[in-house]
């Protein structure tokens, strides 16, 4: 499976403010680039923190891209994936609507009633029980294997910083593109591109492949080493 991470951050590396509210960091051209990346993916993944903060939909904005996928025998929208150990995704979350398939990676910490509540959203919602990692979260190696078994070969991950930290720690990231917007957000409690406990050694290394000026910022393209 190819794991492609994309996010937008401020020049000081923040994904949003200390209030953890969605923040428009990039502009129209970058949103179109993100739409193109989504269209090329089999599924788009976030952590449950992003679902609770932003209530994202994670579908395509551009109808032509949807039509192009359908003509190629693919679902109109990529599937959606949430890493959600305790099945905290609200039953009325936009990510559970029937615009696309949704895969929820949960663990034993999710009660039967929560799992049932999510599965009850419809046949397009798939709840995958997987092992926990050392921190008690979804073991992402096992989770991604479950997604691969469901036919997902190219996974785009949009964040947030806790999920991205675990993906880097597990060595699961193949590519990273990051839009750097020309603003400072600040705040020690504002989420950054990679949160978690951070690294003191064994830093994930990246190869800078390309740089593109877009809207009032830049996109940096990296391959994992
Ligand atoms: N600018 C941008 O491009 C983007 C910005 N954001 C912003 O990021 C913020 C949310 O980020 P954040 O709070 O870090 O939340 P995340 O979206 O990273 O979700 C973190 C949660 O996911 C669950 N989880 C399950 N398995 C794992 C795992 N293996 N590793 C880590 N987490 C796991 C955990 O909850 P549990 O233990 O209950 O399962 C954890 O608390 C919001 O403010 C949002 O607006 C988000 C995406 C893109
Ligand atoms: N690429 C990008 N640029 C920004 O400026 C952003 N604020 C975000 N945020 C993330 O986009 C997702 C929202 O998706 P939908 O539009 O609801 O489909 C969500 O994950 C945000 O955190 N991304």
From TrEMBL:
Q: Which UniProt keywords apply?
A: NADP, Oxidoreductase, Riboflavin biosynthesis
Question: Which residue ranges does UniProt annotate as crossing the membrane?
Answer: none
List the InterPro entries hit by this protein, alphabetically.
DHFR-like_dom_sf, Rib_reduct_arc, RibD_C, RibDG_C, Riboflavin_Biosynth_HTPR
- Pathway where this protein functions: Cofactor biosynthesis; riboflavin biosynthesis
Q: Which Gene3D superfamilies match?
A: Dihydrofolate Reductase, subunit A
**Quaternary structure note:** Homodimer.
Full protein name: 2,5-diamino-6-(ribosylamino)-4(3H)-pyrimidinone 5'-phosphate reductase
């Amino acid at each position: 499976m190819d794991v492609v991470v994309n996010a937008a951050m401020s020049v000081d590396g923040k994904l949003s403010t200390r209030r953890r509210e969605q923040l428009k960091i990039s502009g129209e051209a970058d949103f179109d680039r993100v739409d193109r990346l989504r269209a090329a993916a089999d599924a788009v993944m976030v952590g449950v923190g992003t679902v609770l903060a932003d209530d994202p939909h994670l579908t395509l904005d551009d109808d032509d891209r949807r039509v192009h996928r359908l003509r190629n025998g693919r679902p109109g929208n990529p599937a959606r994936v949430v890493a959600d150990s305790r099945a905290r995704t609200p039953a009325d979350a936009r990510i559970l609507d029937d615009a696309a398939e949704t895969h929820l990676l949960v663990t034993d910490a999710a009660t039967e009633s929560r799992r049932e509540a999510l599965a009850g959203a419809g046949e397009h919602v798939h709840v995958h029980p997987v092992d926990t990692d050392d921190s008690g979260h979804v073991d992402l190696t096992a989770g991604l294997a479950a997604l691969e078994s469901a036919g997902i070969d190219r996974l785009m991950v949009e964040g947030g910083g806790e999920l991205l930290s675990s993906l880097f720690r597990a060595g699961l990231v193949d590519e990273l593109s990051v839009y750097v917007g020309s603003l400072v957000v600040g705040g020690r409690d504002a989420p950054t591109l990679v949160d978690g406990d951070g690294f003191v050694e064994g830093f994930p290394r990246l190869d800078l492949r390309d740089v593109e000026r877009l809207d009032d910022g830049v996109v940096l393209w990296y391959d994992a080493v």
